[in-house]
Amino acid sequence: MLNDIERTLYHEQTILRRLDELAAQITTDYTGRDLTVIAVLNGSLFFMADLLRRIQLPLRLDSLSVSSYHGGTQSTGLVTFDQTSLPDVEGRHVLILDDILDTGLTLNAIRDRLLAEASPASVRICVLLRKEKPRARELEADYVGFDIGDEFVVGYGLDFDERYRNLPFIGVLKPEVFSTSALPD
After folding, report:
1. Among 34-38, 66-70, 129-133, 140-144, where is mean pLDDT lowest?
2. Taking the mean position of all CA atoms in its chain, how far away is CA 45?
3. Contacts of 91 (CB under 8 A, 6+ apart)
4. What are 122's strand-pairing partners?
């Protein structure tokens, strides 16, 4: 796996220090409020676990399985919800956690559906990474770990074809690896 990485963007300790800062801000912003965190599976799992252990508040945790990549390196533009019902967040403050803000399609679809169907008190978005690029749908994250260029990154939960999630850092994947023929079975 390490041979497939062009370069490391953020080492594990850098990520964890930034999560300390994010958690402190989230704790301050949500003190005295009923907070529900909704993690977007599978990419946000590492981010979610490390961030939530740092938030010093009682909170509820739920998850949504949503995708728009379907195995490739570009969003298909079609957002698929893998479950039929949404978490019960009526009257609660919701913080959506996702690994990366790229096109904005997935996070917009989640936010719009929550607002239309679940009656939350508020919805905010927290992402580990935000790509600096034009988005298919305009969306701003309320909390951002790191801004990155428009590169294909893996590690710390981010994947290519369900691989590389378990790397303890965030790195840029070599372009030649994008070919599925280059991946072992």
Report:
1. 66-70
2. 8
3. 34, 119, 120, 121
4. 93
| Helix count and strand count (H, E) for the chain | 3, 9
Token representation of residue 29: 């912003």
**DSSP per-residue letters across 105-122:** HHHHHHHHHHHHHT--SE
User: What pTM did the predictor assign?
Assistant: 0.88
State the Cα–Cα distance between residues 47 and 168, nearest whole angstrom: 11
- What domains sit in the chain, N to C, each tagged with a CATH number? 12-149 (3.40.50.2020)
Cβ neighbourhood burial of 47 (10 Å; 0-12, 13-18, 19+): buried
Catalytic annotation, residues: 102
Torsion angle in degrees (nearest 10) through CA of 143, 145, 146, 147? -20
Query: What pLDDT does 182 receive?
Result: 46
Q: Residue 84 has what pLDDT? A: 72
